[in-house]
Amino acid sequence: MTRSAIVLAAGHGSRMKSQKHKVLHEVCGKPMILHILDTLEKTGLDQVIVVVGQHREKVMEAVAGRADIAIQEEQLGTGHAVQAALPYVREDAESVVVLYGDAPLIQSETLEQLFTVREEAQAAVSVLTADVADPTGLGRVFLDEAGFVSKIVEEKDATPDERRHHVINTGIYAYAADALRRSVAQLRPDNAQREYYLTDTLAILREGGQPAIPVAVRDVDEIASVNDRLQLANVERLCRRRIIEGWLRAGVTMVDPDSTYIDATVQLAQDVTLLPGTILKGQTVIGAFSEIGPNTRLTDVVVGEHAVVQYSVAVDSRIGAGAQVGPFAYLRPGSDVGERVKVGDFVEIKNSRIGNDTKVSHLTYVGDAEIGANVNVGCGVITVNYDGEKKHKTVVGDNSFVGSNVNLIAPVTIGEGAYIVAGTSVTEDAGDDAFVIGRVPQVTKPNYVRAWKARKKSATSPEGGDSRGH
Question: What's noted on cofactor binding (predicted)?
Answer without folding.
Answer: Binds 1 Mg(2+) ion per subunit.
